[in-house]
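User: Hey, my collaborator sent me this sequence without any context and asked if I could get a structure. I don't really work with proteins. Can you help?
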Amino acid sequence: MAKIVKCKSCGAEIEANAKTCPECGAIQKKMGCGLKLAIVFLSIVAVIGVILIAAMSGGDKKDATGVTSSNKTDASSQSETGDNLQDNKKEEKKVLYDGDTLKATFNQLIEYDSVEGCCYLQLEVENKYDKAVWVYLDNASVNGYSIRTLSSTPMYIEPGEKSLNPFIITYIQCNVEDIDEIESVKFEIVEAEMEGLNEFFRTDKIELSF
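Assistant: No problem. I've predicted the 3D structure and written it out in structure-token form, which is a compact way to encode the shape of the chain:
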């Protein structure tokens, strides 16, 4: 019996190998082998980056939102010692998408002075689907410039649970020196099945304006 999935456009139940939806006619786009390999490669790079950042932090701990802060150190001592790695951030609680299979809320855009040419986009993503999923971002741009990478390790989210795993934004090729110069970030949020990383849902283009 053929595996049944939901149409990414209208939500109708269709066979997993169907190229178009018999209900609405929408093309069922699947993740190619190249993109799968790219996600695996980016995951490895992201893990290495996290390890390097942790090594630079000198024993700093993360709070509930995943932002690094010095353990038991007040703001004045951080200023004197220069141990505060967080250089800048744009913060606003804003729902970006709320649908049948996921809810995505913007938390913050964070930049660290120990890491050049990129910053971290933190979204709170809730899996409203009845199965565990991978969530990643695609077709991204910064200030109108298309960027190749807007990802870290794709979010793995169990049904009914949430993730705050940050996505990496590279802006070095966008005539941007720091996040103060970022005026807009656009991307699509993609949900993929655990088995085979087959895409089953994709949002329309989402824009964050600062």
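In plain terms: Residues 116 and 172 are 8 Å apart (CA to CA). You can pass these tokens on to your collaborator as they are.
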